[in-house]
Amino acid sequence: MTAKIKIITPPDKLFDKANSILLIHPGQELKREFNEILAEQDESVNVYMFEKLTDEDVLDYEWLLSVANMVGKVILDVDKCYPVTRNFTSYLISLPNVYYITNDTTTPYKLISDRQIYNLDILKKGGHVV
Question: Based on the structure, what is the number of domains in the chain?
């Protein structure tokens, strides 16, 4: 079976049976690592992307919160978040399906969640993205 990777951006949502993951403000290194993992997949995956690619892009926070609550896993790159998105990080990190990456040693995110990650190895478990 050939994997089908569907990239979904605001305002769209898919309601199918494929595993789904949300990437929030992924940096280039995170995207590279994620693409390498996707290349090894044999199952279909919905990849929701929340990022600002141009100055004209408007970030839809209602969509973000809705999708974060419906996907299997969320990867949040805290250090790459825009200021408004950072206002939502504590809530997002508190969700049981959210894994976060940060180099911030000042903010005690670990008081909210022990799901800090340093790479995407958690997506490799069992050979499935989600």
Answer: 1
